Amino acid sequence: MNAFNDLMAFQKDTEALAQVAGRLGWDQETMMPGAAAPQRGDEMAAIEKVLHARRIDPKIADWLEAVDADALDEVGKAQLREIRRSFERTSKIPAELAAEIARVTSMSQGTWAKARAAEDVAAFLPALEEVVRLKREEGQALADGGDVYDAMLDDYEPDMTAARLSEMFDAMRPRLVDLRAKVLAAKAPRALTGWYPEQAQLAVSDKLAKAFGYNFDHGRIDKAVHPFSSGSGLDVRITTRVAKEDPFNCFYSTIHEVGHACYEQGIDNAYLLTPIGRGVSMGVHESQSRIYENQLGRSSAFTGWLFDLMRDSFDEFDVPNEQAFYATVNRVNKGYIRTEADEIQYNLHVMLRFDLERALMSGDLAVTDLEAAWNDRFESDFGYPVDKPSNGVLQDVHWSVGLFGYFPTYALGNLYAGCLHEALRKAVPDLDDQLRDGNTSAATGWLRENLQRHGALRSPQETIALASGMEPGPESMLNYLEKKFSEIYDI
């Protein structure tokens, strides 16, 4: 056991340094002065060099060779699996390339934010071309002759392939498109109107975070252009955003990020600063954010409680009753923004990005042609043209920071959430009675016990299968959507 203990002690310091790097990223999104970007790029590159060196340290190979895996329990074997996987993958990437990616993506993020604000795609394209070049080089190193996109996807959803995703997406698309057509042809619920002051929205946001079990002793909420969750263990921070004419943007961004954060906060503290002391994959992570946001947060029961909270929080609020409010919250709109999309159309936004980024990584699509490809695909999928870049190719931060392979995990998370929700309803038959009082503890407790506390103990597919009692597939999600929106829209 000496070799294993030495390996884990070494790994603990690596995990701690990775948390520091993540904190730098959080600061860049929330508090860093804009003009500090060049220095931050160098700082991120420097810490990435240290992390890369630790992750491929020859001592790790020696320890892995010396450890008797048969003598380890389930937790020990999982730790060993994750360390070996990281060592083997990182060893394929030259240190200089890893540092350059960290530096360039840190700078590119700022370039994207300025270009987005100015509606200037051309100002962003040179930075994106450099990111794509570097990430393609990284993908080729990881793939070792195999599929580049599959190698990149493995960073976010281990053991998943683009072919399997395409198969699932192809099964989802016809029913989603058919449901959307029926809904858009029906009479729409009233839209929310009015003006909702920022501080009042943020006060409601805090109450929602607490209602869903977010522990403020180990976290905080700040504002960002693109909401996100950062950190794990004892320091898990989230961000939200405010649109004064659309408080749902703030409220459901908060609930979504709380889902991510509660996953990290719910992991067994015995795994703190170890390889399994974090979410097992981004697909499983998204299952938590999406079930918090949608199946719980947009349910008829919980929106009844939120309706009363909004009446108490805002002077001008023109929705007459709980039933109308539930329909308004779940209103299906024509729109451009993935993060603001309703449950029916959200996955269609993801499928667009999945296909475009695969083409970028394969070289079938040039960065200079990306905006035109996006606009053509969007109009084909949604039936109306993109009106401005911030509603189109510039709306997401992901590509600017090199997150290729990340987007499909959003749709995969919806699929996983459908399985979990079906199991949760069977396990907690009086769930709606509790949600009507704003009490999510039975639901979040079930998720914590059956999924969150295990961290990366098991593979993503096994994690969902054991928690839900079924093999992951799109059927549960599609059945849930068809039932919910057929009732709301009377179709």
Describe the overall structure.
- With 491 residues, this protein is mainly α.
- Helices cover 64% and strands 3% of the residues.
- The chain folds into two domains: 2-146, no CATH class; 162-489, Neurolysin, domain 3.
- Strands 1-3-2 form a three-stranded mixed sheet, with helices on both faces.
- Strand 2 (229-232) and strand 3 form a beta hairpin.
- The longest helix has 29 residues, at 2-30.
- Keywords: Carboxypeptidase, Hydrolase, Metal-binding, Metalloprotease, Protease, Zinc.
- It holds the Pfam family Peptidase_M32.
- Broad specificity carboxypetidase that releases amino acids sequentially from the C-terminus, including neutral, aromatic, polar and basic residues.
Q: Which characteristics define this entry?
A:
single chain; 491 residues; mainly alpha; Neurolysin, domain 3; 2 domains; 3-stranded mixed sheet; 20 helices; 3 strands; 3% strand; globular; Peptidase_M32_Taq; zinc; Metal-dependent carboxypeptidase
Beta strands, count: 3
What is the string of SSEs from the N terminus onward? HHHHHHHHHEEEHHHHHHHHHHH
Q: In CATH terms, what is the fold-level topology of the largest domain?
A: Neurolysin, domain 3
Distance between the termini: 63 Å
Q: State the helical fraction.
A: 55-70%
Strand share of the residues?
Answer: under 5%
Indicate the CATH architecture of the largest domain: Orthogonal Bundle
Assembly context of the chains: single chain
- Which outline best applies? globular
Structural class: mainly alpha
CATH class of the largest domain: Mainly Alpha
Largest sheet: 3 strands, mixed
Low-confidence stretches: none
Major sheet: order of its strands?
A: 1-3-2
Q: What number of domains?
A: 2
Please work out how many helical segments DSSP would assign.
Answer: 20
Catalytic activity: Release of a C-terminal amino acid with broad specificity, except for -Pro
Function: Broad specificity carboxypetidase that releases amino acids sequentially from the C-terminus, including neutral, aromatic, polar and basic residues.
Binding site for Zn(2+): 256, 260, 286
Protein name: Metal-dependent carboxypeptidase
